[in-house]
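User: Modeling request: complex.
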Amino acid sequence: MSYSISDVAKMMGVSAHTLRYYDKEGLFPNVKRVNGIRVFEESDFEWLRVLNCLRNINMPIKKMKEYVDLCALGDASLRERLAMIEEQERNINSQIKQLQYYKQEIDFKKAYYTKAIEMGSESAVRDWPCKTATLELDKLPG
Amino acid sequence: MSYSISDVAKMMGVSAHTLRYYDKEGLFPNVKRVNGIRVFEESDFEWLRVLNCLRNINMPIKKMKEYVDLCALGDASLRERLAMIEEQERNINSQIKQLQYYKQEIDFKKAYYTKAIEMGSESAVRDWPCKTATLELDKLPG
DNA sequence: ATAGAAGTTAGAGTTAACTCTAAGTCAAGG
DNA sequence: CCTTGACTTAGAGTTAACTCTAACTTCTAT
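Assistant: Request completed. Predicted assembly structure:
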């Protein structure tokens, strides 16, 4: 079974334009062509999933290209690839931590507005103790 | 106690340029000026923390501006503000969920490369069962 | 065989969020 | 008084990641 660029675009939830852009940036070094037309196979899907993953954890396209190039080197680049993956691991962990921190602030705001609406006015809750209000600005997760 | 723009920049971990840009976009409607120079007070810090929070959960600056404008309307905009915060709550929850999902893929990759290095070659682990490899592309968290 | 849909390219345009520059103002220290 | 350094503005420049256009080719169905 083979797939056109727009099939894959639909599957990944991006535009065909975007996939051509990724290809131009060198992210699909192994996709087959028939009469110049890109033909995706199931065997390409693992790679598409990897790209999709890296994109969704905010790896820049240039870094993805570096990763592609390392893959092309085979076993000689295993350590470098592990290092990149470990960097992404640290990255994703800090992103999750940061979001969880700010989730608390958002939850507080939600409670604040809910109460304010209930009371009919913000002035009734203006000086609610805010857990985060005592934090130093420079201690926030970066 | 009052603070200059570069004091605040240091505290927030952004550049003074960036803060002036935010101001130009209307995100600091209440910061005092003395001889045209911005003077930040402790009383501005709660607002800086809110902005910092919204920025870190990837709210676009235009949306932050909308929020600023709603705040200026007082009690009349409480419901709209709650709605915005609730949207951000959904948003942040889906961001966290998505990152946690892709964290699994990264953890798998890490184990994969670790094993490959141990074995001396990727070919030894090439066909490891990958939990995520069976997923439909279009079932991935968006 | 021909229309229309979908593919191709190079390259221009867009958007968001900075990032920097130039030219100028102001306050403090020597 | 004069330099130094931090502040000001308007506006230009940068970067990443698309997003689109124009001109063209190829596939599919009548």
